[in-house]
Amino acid sequence: IAGLLMIYQIRQSTNVKHSTMAIYAADAGLESYLYYSYGIPVSSTLSNDATYEVTPTASGAKSVGQYQNSLRAFEISFGP
User: Fold this and answer.
1) Which residue from 11, 41, 49, 71 lies 20 to 30 Å from 28 (Cα-Cα)?
2) What distance in Å separates the CA atoms of residue 56 and residue 38, rounded to the nearest whole number?
3) Cα–Cα distances in angstroms (integers) from residue 46 to residues 49, 64, 80, in the given order
4) What is d(CA 39, CA 48) in angstroms, rounded to the nearest whole number?
């Protein structure tokens, strides 16, 4: 039982690492979108193999970051 619990803890800590990488990728995607190509879909692979894809929405943009099996997203809305 102790071995099984350790495996779950290791898996959970790995998932947290992947989730963090995905969050940073999504953030980088929004920054790239705002800085380089406002209004144009953007996607890229970062040096740590995390990826992001940014798509325009009706009121702003949505950025989805992915690292291995973790996906995280940010959305930005522009005011009137």
Assistant:
1) 11
2) 9
3) 5, 13, 33
4) 26
What is the maximum alpha-carbon separation in the chain? 57
Tally of CB atoms within 10 A around 22: 23
Q: What is the pTM assigned to this prediction?
A: 0.74
Which H or E run contains 15?
helix 2-36
Four-point Cα dihedral 30, 31, 34, 35, nearest 10: -150
User: Which is nearest to 51 in space by CA: 34, 37, 63?
Assistant: 63
3-62 per-position pLDDT tens digit: 777 777 777 777 788 888 899 899 888 888 888 766 677 888 989 999 999 988 888 889
